Amino acid sequence: MTTLESITDGPATDDAKFWLIVAECFGVEVPTFQGEGPSCGHPALFIRLSRCNLTCAKCDTKYTWDWARFDPRMESTKRSVADLVAWAVSSPVELVVITGGEPLIQEARLVPLVRGLLTAGKVVEFETNGTIAPVPDLVVDGVRFNVSPKLSSFGVKEAKSIVPAALEAFAASGRAAFKFVASSVADLDRIAELVDAHRLAPVWVMPEGTTAEAVTERTRVLADAVAARHWHFTTRLHVLAFADARGR
Questions:
Q1: Per residue in 179-195, pLDDT tens?
Q2: What integer best gives the mean pLDDT of the chain?
Q3: Domain 5-242 is found in CATH 3.20.20.70
Q4: DSSP-assigned beta bridge partners for residue 180
Q5: N or C: which end of the chain has fewer CB within 10 A?
């Protein structure tokens, strides 16, 4: 397994807590929106971190972890907290989405980044798979969590992707929304089981798909059943607007 340090250029002589392994940053040079969940449609900047603790078959960012298909030296870089904050501050956009991969793998290093962003007047939203509970220093004013537990239909074993203690920690934080990717009405039954077992709220459902046609088709399959459960529904705006182009 490739470690975080082994892919960096040169020796890691600086304090490890002041740098992160990043897949890409976007939203400054070419403006974009948050495409999913409670903030869908909001102008946003994205810091996509590299690495994930899951290997979902339907993942659409495999370049953050699938080293059988991608070269980690080409797909990830070492960037300092100061550099990332300066990049975000160069834009007037308030919302900064920290995503992955699974960003909370690097959560100890994220604390100084989040502090810097908040001090600069930004709002921070984490996109996480919900398997790693946030450290207390991240559960603060100005930070929210878009938690997306992965079902077996997403191509992953739930023994790995569903971590009850972590989900309950997010629920208790009061700063999380729970966004489930669904392909069928049967997925909604499984979502309901998890929601009831771990007291997850609020709940958002998003249709699975990486093309506008697939998103539209699954929206029509799911919409009535989601509405009947009084859950929120979100589309995938970046797929509809930008054809799932990387960096949009």
A1: 999 999 999 999 999 99
A2: 93
A3: yes
A4: 205
A5: N
